[in-house]
Amino acid sequence: MRIALFATCLGDTLFPEAVKSTAVLLARLGHDVVFPPQQTCCGQMHVNTGYQREPVPLVRNFAEQFGDPSIEAVVMPSGSCAGSVRHQHEIVADRYGDAALRAGVATVKTKTYELSEFLVDVLDATDVGAYFPHRVTYHPTCHSLRMLRVGEKPLRLLRAVEGIDLVELPEADACCGFGGTFAVKNAATSSAMLRDKMDHIAGTGAKVCTAGDSSCLMHIGGGLSRIKSGTRTLHLAQILASTRTAPHALTEAAR
Amino acid sequence: MPAVPPRSPYGTGHLRGERTFPEAAHDELGNEQLRRNLGRATHSIRAKRLDVTGELPDWEQLRDAGSAIKTDTMNRLPGLLEQLERKVTEHGGTVHWARDGVEANEIVTRLVRRTGSDEVLKVKSMATQEIGLNEHLASQGIAALETDLAELIVQLADDRPSHILVPAIHRNRDEIREIFLRRIPGVDPALGAAPAELAAAARAYLREKFMTAEVAVSGANFGIAETGTLSVVESEGNGRMCLTLPETLITVMGIEKVLPRFQDLEVFLQLLPRSSTGERMNPYTSLWTGVTPGDGPQEFHLVLLDNGRTAALADTIGREALNCIRCSACLNVCPVYERTGGHAYGSTYPGPIGAVLTPQLAGMHAAKDDPNSSLPYASSLCGACFDACPVKIDIPSLLVELRHQHTEQSKTTAEKLAMTAAAAVMKRPKLFTAAQRTAGLGRVLAGRDGTFSRLPPPFQGWSDSRDTPAPPPQSFRSWFASADGAATMRAAAEEGARHTDDDPQEAQ
Ligand code: SF4
């Protein structure tokens, strides 16, 4: 299948390892992975902060870059960006776009997937041949959970990882407190939410907390780093891309 | 374009706090006792709600039905209200229309005066909280006594409610005991803190009032257009006492509370208690239609309150918020409410629905720093409220819509400039790539561990409790375009090909 990768602005700039892992994983599964180089950002931050006029060119660019009919699927390692493409691009296009934009948005929307959805629903793959011998806990990010309804899909993928010690996170579906600019505008409330999330993570004794969104992981990871917790964050794609022949650096270090 | 209907007037009632949400929340967050009380209470109600909604096989269909009935109601609200007025009048009641809180307060005051009484009993009513009726009556020399136990606690403590359904959720038993000892005349000094003892003390105090009061003011959960029937749903029976014992009953009802048919109660009397207290059925449901000679109040007045509701109705996207049945499920699942409590929202309506409804009813005033304009941002958009709402109000989308309305109304701000600038960079891939490179250079500013521990305004709040990673030297796009990237992708593809040969089922 010809898959276009959407790196997301945050993944591309700050968390390239998560995107690399996504690319490598999809290639390993036998697919033709392309990266439309003119892509930038889905505009989610704008819309969620209250700006719908400003991201019009971003929505247009997204529809143009991924509208190519030879692209069979657009895959991204982010539940919230997939949610933005599927739910918010239409709102923006309806309000401030023209007919062409509305049509473009409607077309791209139907072939846009978050990574775990794509693996499980489209490729019907739950065992992706990964190897990751560590204690891991999984945080289901809010947009994956409630906008995309990915449900158990990421967990099914994780359970199939060889060597993994997957432990349940208490109150897993509670928000970590990120929420984009919420964490800046309501920093104190956000910190209180983060503190509880970190306590729950600590309680699992996991070495790694994983999730399907780099943004939430940046928040949780930033908190864990500040309190010098021994637990680190890794994107789900990084665990799934780790194999016996090409193990994740964490595994190599443990050897 | 027709003029937008008026909002609730600035400065009356309780639809606007004194401080913005982040400021007010900051103080509440420091109150450990409050957070413990709230955490315990919301967790237990949440669990109960999940149990009792989970046991109904048609729960989702009930939610759909509730949502559909409400949407239909809003679509033909004027006609339904006129029908309600007709039916109430036919049954011997009198209907009054109040454009806003000021008018409603005046109407109620006039009606109470006419009875010659200077005391009224209240059964918990959000509408009268919203318009500040008790304060207004007090200023006119009329004492209003709350009879709902939690509301009474709040009133005796000179406090404000912090939850739609459990107004004293932020208080624990010991605090309540203290309040009773201080404020209930003649209370037994040996009063204990057990719930039954506390309830008994309140009961003895209220009983006396019930027997003597001549006027009661109630709210309404539902008003049935088809029959002119009003309804109040409650737990303690004190409401029923108010509704039946006094000579005169005055009900203040927000116009969105109307339902078309009597049969619609079937849906809402299932949705409401299960969503709010996690009970299969609330202990008391009172229904009354006009007056019945020789039985119950002989005079009945219905005050229909707008106070910004028509303005909300005129907003094609925001009108969905009027579907709310005030069950408080969204508050109980909200992680923000759980940390800050209800006072931080500054309104009679706290929590997720409050963050939507309050600015809609009272507006986000053009003046800078109107506390109401901070409410749409008081959410991480986690969506738990949407999942919990029995009438499926898409609160996160409404919050995003209100944020949009706010930024459209506000003049140029630093944030707006930053957003415009960010969009300008991100719409031009070349500029974006260049910006990524500059960001990569930011590494030199990061600490030795490759993170930033202090960020400049407006990000200092973020960096108070989180480290921020410095951008790695190479972005994904430059890696993908590099020889290294190409080689890695080739190797992965080759491994994939081997893999596919081994097991053609696995990957296609
Ligand atoms: S918005 Fe929904 S969940 Fe919240 S109080 Fe209203 S009806 Fe209940």
Topology:
The complex is a heterodimer of chains A (255) and B (508).
Chain A: E1 2-5, H1 9-13, H2 16-28, E2 32-34, H3 44-49, H4 56-67, E3 73-76, H5 79-96, H6 99-109, E4 112-114, H7 115-122, E5 135-138, H8 142-147, H9 153-159, E6 165-167, H10 182-185, H11 187-204, E7 208-211, H12 214-226, E8 232-235, H13 236-240, H14 249-254
Chain B: H1 21-29, H2 32-54, H3 59-75, H4 77-90, E1 94-98, H5 101-115, E2 119-122, H6 126-131, H7 133-139, E3 143-146, H8 149-156, H9 173-183, H10 195-212, E4 215-218, E5 222-224, E6 229-234, H11 238-244, E7 248-254, E8 258-259, H12 265-276, E9 284-289, E10 299-305, H13 309-314, H14 329-333, H15 335-340, H16 351-362, H17 384-388, H18 395-409, H19 414-426, H20 429-441, E11 451-452, H21 460-465, E12 468-469, H22 476-481, H23 483-502
Parallel strand pairs in B: 1-10, 2-3, 2-4, 4-7, 5-8, 7-10
Antiparallel strand pairs in B: 5-6, 6-9, 11-12
Helix pairs in contact in B: 3-12, 9-10, 16-18
Bound molecules: iron/sulfur cluster.
Iron/sulfur cluster binds at residues 275, 324-330, 353, 388-391, 393 of chain B.
Describe this structure in words.
The complex is a heterodimer of chains A (255) and B (508). Chain A is an alpha/beta fold and 255 residues long. Chain A has helices spanning 9-13, 16-28, 44-49, 56-67, 79-96, 99-109, 115-122, 142-147, 153-159, 182-185, 187-204, 214-226, 236-240, 249-254; strands at 2-5, 32-34, 73-76, 112-114, 135-138, 165-167, 208-211, 232-235. The radius of gyration of chain A is 18 Å and the shape is globular. The relative contact order of chain A is 0.15. Chain B has 508 residues and is of the alpha/beta class. Chain B is built from 23 helices and twelve strands. In chain B, β5 (222-224) and β6 form a beta hairpin. In chain B, α3 packs across α12 (265-276), α9 packs parallel to α10 and α16 runs parallel beside α18. Chain B is elongated. Residues 504-508 of chain B have low confidence and may be disordered.
